[in-house]
Write a structure and sequence with these properties.
With 296 residues, the protein is mainly beta. It is 9% helix and 39% strand.
């Protein structure tokens, strides 16, 4: 009788194991997605998107949930904006929360470790990372650029709240460049001691008028030229490191090559400029000379 009960228990346990294994999701190979669609020649390939920790493949099986009795808690982004990548991690500014970190190696999604206590963020909008792994987060509601080291530990914060509105930051060599929308300038700091070295964009140009009106996003190319998305000019402005205009890209309008609400900018190794427009919901790609190449 005792043997029969033990035998029945084993059968039930094996059924649970089989059920748990059977409920595991089966991965299917998806066809690659290209843009534009055929018959036009492909120019851009979609790879994947990340919204929650489940997109990293770290989902528990039904059997694990049954054994532990714990329902899986899904961690996800709420209102993402600025993003940066370093050492197998994707850092995303969630403007309603903090900086969230997708660790592609550990397959995890967690808040930035140092964003608590003195390093607590209020409304992070953009983040940049230097070659040493230090992070620079622009937080306009806190009114500071908050700096974390290569281990994501809080280091210090730059700026006096209320006196400016930092919306983006970028490092080039020993200087930190910050887009200040309130004062309509690019603030240039000494990266080590935090001293203000220069304010770019205040002067007026005979050809272009006031240099900057509403700088929102910035990025450097490999030659050290600074690209500024200016929502007030409806253009991207290319500056040298002393703040002199080298060229202007785009103009207000609704045709290819025009801008309505220019936002994020990035420059690749070949000098091509990628500019996001929040009104058109697209990305426009320009050559090094400022000629429109493609948009998607």
């Amino acid at each position: 009788m005792r043997f029969k009960k033990l035998k029945n228990s084993l059968i039930i346990f094996i059924i649970f194991i089989v059920a748990g294994c059977a409920s595991a999701p089966v991965k299917t190979q998806q066809d690659p997605v290209f843009y534009p669609e055929p018959p036009a020649p492909p120019r851009i390939q979609y790879l994947r998107s990340y919204t929650s920790d489940q997109d990293l493949g770290a989902k528990k099986s039904a059997f694990e949930t049954f054994i532990t009795g714990e329902k899986e808690k899904v961690k996800s982004l709420d209102k993402p904006y600025g993003v940066a990548i370093h050492d197998g991690k994707i850092y995303v500014c969630d403007t309603n929360a903090t900086v969230m970190v997708f660790d592609l190696k550990k397959k995890s999604l967690d808040p930035l470790q140092g964003a608590q206590g003195l390093g607590k963020l209020v409304q992070p909008v953009n983040i940049s990372i230097d070659k040493d792994g230090n992070k620079y987060v622009a937080d306009p509601l806190r009114g500071q650029v908050v700096i974390y080291d290569k281990n994501d530990v809080y280091v210090k914060a730059l700026g006096i709240p209320g006196q400016w509105k930092p919306v983006d930051a970028a490092v080039y060599e020993d200087r930190l460049y910050v887009a200040d929308m309130q004062n309509r300038v690019i603030m240039v700091f000494d990266k080590e001691n935090g001293d203000i070295i220069l304010k770019m964009g205040q002067a007026k140009d005979e050809t272009f008028g006031r240099l900057l009106i509403a700088p929102t996003n910035i990025a450097f190319d490999k030659e050290g030229y600074l690209y500024v998305a200016d929502a007030g000019r409806f253009q991207v402005v290319k500056l040298d490191r002393d703040g002199r205009i080298k060229s202007i890209i785009g103009e207000i309008g609704d045709r290819p090559g025009n801008f309505s609400r220019p936002r994020g900018v990035a420059v690749d190794r070949e000098g091509r400029l990628y500019a996001v427009d929040a009104a058109f919901d697209n990305v426009q790609i320009f050559s090094k000379e400022g000629r429109l190449l493609f948009f998607f």
